[in-house]
Every structure is written in structure tokens, then in C-alpha cells.
Design goal:
The protein contains 12 helices and 8 strands. The chain has 256 residues and is of the alpha/beta class. Bound molecules: adenosine-5'-diphosphate and magnesium ion. It comes from Tepidimonas charontis. GO terms for molecular function: hydrolase activity.
Length: 256
């Protein structure tokens, strides 16, 4: 049975999509069967996996509205090594349309139930908000992976997200857990980042993943080639860190 994880943080530009596609590719490299679900109308995770969002149909939008099944909408990314349930700007409309539908927070969970046996991991790239789309992700998941930069305001935003996870756990999805905080775009030369990193560990303990993702330009270049950084340049420091993170996730899941 697949383990389902949301990559979430209500801030934009913190590394969610980079984490989703590179963790997916890293897990594929260590032999896991992976489905990556793009829940962001920007479709960056879709494009970054080598699937063209402009011509893609059906997408996760049709899946949420109930007019397509996951196996019909998912595409294999041969280059990246995993399956992609893609998104494009059409998904922005779902936010409004879902409100009218029954079980509006549970649409994704219900759709993914049909493919639970086909994958080891299902990763969901969430939009930068605590919207109905993100709620669908949180209701479908066993856990949340939170990428964050070790900056001054990072901790502040975190409490909103942690509260939302608690609320969803209490009211909508008893399975949901905060799996961990992933330090991304990390630069060891910056003292402030070291300090925030120490604060994180003091406050969240083993909820902070051991793996640290460095700031690495190869990870930022990869999407324009339609590839996860892990595949684009496997020798890059950032790529190696994501494969390491994939291994850490496999071990964590065995203990869950
Ligand atoms: P989000 O999905 O949270 O909005 P992204 O994953 O799109 O964030 O990342 C925001 C920007 O930062 C992108 O341009 C991405 O290429 C870049 N980026 C993300 N992680 C790294 C990293 N470890 N090193 C360098 N650049 C990164
Ligand atoms: Mg994103």
C-alpha cells in the first residue's frame, strides 16, 4: 500500500516543488514506485517532471471533479522515472467548483484509493496557501513534509501550518502527521541559517530531517530542461542530497 505525503508550506518560493520532484526522482532511483501529484495550478511540478502542462488532459482537475480516474490522467515520465498526475491553470477553477460538491475535502483521497496498490509512495506538491486544494492534499495524506529555509521569519510561518495540520488531524483525517521539517537552500557559511537550524532542532527534535538540502544552482537550472535535478545532474551536491533524503524517507516509512 502506498504511503502518501504532502509537500506543504503556505509560503511560496520555499522549495516545495523542488522537493516534490527531486524526492520523487530520488525515491524512483532507490527502487520505489512513485506517483507525483501536482496540486498547484502553476503546474511547475508537472513541467519539472517533463510533462507538458499545456497539452495535458485530463489533469488532476478532472480527477478532483470526478470526471476522470487517476490511472487515465496519470502520465509516465520516462526521464524522471515516476508517474505524474499533472496540473495546469484549469485547476485554479476547482477551488470554486469544489465548494459545491459533496465530500469536497476528500475528493483526492477518494480518487487515490484506486491506485494505492500500484505505488510505494504518492507525493503531493501543494500550492502556497491553506486552500481547499491544499486541504484535499492534507486529507489524502499520511504525513506532511515541510520544506523550509532557515531564515528569521521561518519559524513564525511554521506555527500556522502546524495548527492547520492539527485541525485537519482533529476534524478530517486522523492519519495525518507532521513527518518532518526539511532544511532546504541551506548555506553553511551563513551564521543566521546555522542559528535557525539549531533553534529548529531544539524545538522540533527528531521532526527535523537529518538530511539538509544545500543551495545548489543545478537544482534551480534543472526545471528548464524538464527534469528533476536528481536526473539532470546526478553528481551535483543538491542531487546527491535529495537521493540521501529519499533513503531517509524509506527508513522513516519502515518505522511508521
Ligand atoms: P515553491 O514550490 O515552494 O514555490 P520552488 O521549489 O519552486 O518553491 O523553489 C523556488 C525557487 O528556488 C525556484 O526557482 C527553485 O529553482 C529555487 N530552488 C529551490 N531549491 C533550491 C536549492 N536547494 N538550491 C537552489 N535553488 C533552489
Ligand atoms: Mg511550487
Amino acid at each position: 500500500m502506498a504511503r502518501v505525503f504532502c509537500v506543504a508550506n503556505q509560503k511560496g518560493g520555499v522549495g516545495k516543488t523542488t522537493t516534490a520532484v527531486n524526492l520523487a526522482a530520488g525515491l524512483a532511483q532507490v527502487g520505489q514506485r512513485v506517483l507525483m501529484v501536482d496540486l498547484d495550478p502553476q503546474g511547475n511540478a508537472t513541467m519539472g517532471s517533463g510533462v507538458d502542462k499545456r497539452t495535458l488532459r485530463p489533469t488532476v482537475y478532472e480527477v478532483l471533479l470526478g470526471s476522470a480516474a487517476v490511472p487515465d490522467a496519470a502520465r509516465r515520465s520516462e526521464a524522471a522515472g515516476y508517474d505524474v498526475l499533472g496540473a495546469n491553470r484549469e485547476l485554479a477553477g476547482a477551488e470554486v467548483e469544489l465548494v459545491e460538491l459533496p465530500q469536497r475535502e476528500h475528493r483526492l483521497r477518494q480518487a487515490l484509493a484506486a491506485v494505492q496498490g500500484d505505488y510505494d509512495f504518492i507525493l503531493i506538491d501543494c500550492p502556497p496557501s491553506l486552500s481547499l486544494l491544499t486541504l484535499n492534499g492534507l486529507c489524502a495524506a499520511h504525513g506532511v513534509i515541510v520544506p523550509m529555509q532557515c531564515e528569521y521569519f521561518a519559524l513564525e510561518g511554521l506555527s500556522d501550518l502546524v495548527n492547520s495540520i492539527k485541525q485537519v488531524h482533529a476534524n478530517l483525517n486522523r492519519d495525518l502527521k507532521l513527518i518532518g521539517l526539511l532544511r532546504v537552500m541551506f548555506d553553511t557559511r551563513i551564521t543566521l541559517q546555522q542559528q535557525v537550524s539549531e533553534q529548529l532542532k531544539a524545538h522540533f527534535g527528531d521532526k527535523v530531517f537529518d538530511t539538509v538540502i544545500p543551495r545548489n544552482v543545478r537544482l534551480a537550472e534543472a526545471p528548464s530542461y524538464g527534469l528533476p535535478g536528481v536526473v539532470f545532474d546526478p553528481s551535483a551536491r543538491g542531487a546527491k542530497a535529495f537521493v540521501e533524503f529519499a533513503r531517509e524517507m524509506v527508513v522513516r516509512v519502515e518505522r511508521m
